């Protein structure tokens, strides 16, 4: 599976189901350029995972929504719940490990912890 271009318009629908990895990047970013082929190769090998890319120059609102201050930044979702976020390019072995960890999460526990965290947000 090739990567998907993620925008504010298709964001919510894209992250709703399954495992989704989002790469926040920019064309001028050298670490982003080095990480891009690793991300692309993983997308070819893991056809059951959605790989999405956000051009932070084009989608500034989306980057701000995530609080991205350093690129590349990688975000992982599982079944609509954000489960990982980290700036910096990952080597291929670390990306593979992350994908396996996200796929093997106990989602009952994740949903419970996420609901608890949401209920403690101001205004909840």
UniProtKB/TrEMBL annotation:
The keyword Heme does not apply. It comes from the Bacteria. GO terms for cellular component: cytosol. The record marks 30-31 as: Contributes to redox potential value. Residues 1-104 form the Thioredoxin domain. GO terms for molecular function: protein-disulfide reductase activity. Pfam families: Thioredoxin. Disulfide bonds join 29-32. Keywords: Disulfide bond, Electron transport, Redox-active center, Transport. The record marks 23 as: Deprotonates C-terminal active site Cys. InterPro entries: Thioredoxin, Thioredoxin-like_sf, Thioredoxin_CS, Thioredoxin_domain. The active site is at residues 29, 32. Belongs to the thioredoxin family. PANTHER family: GEO12009P1, THIOREDOXIN 2. This is Thioredoxin.
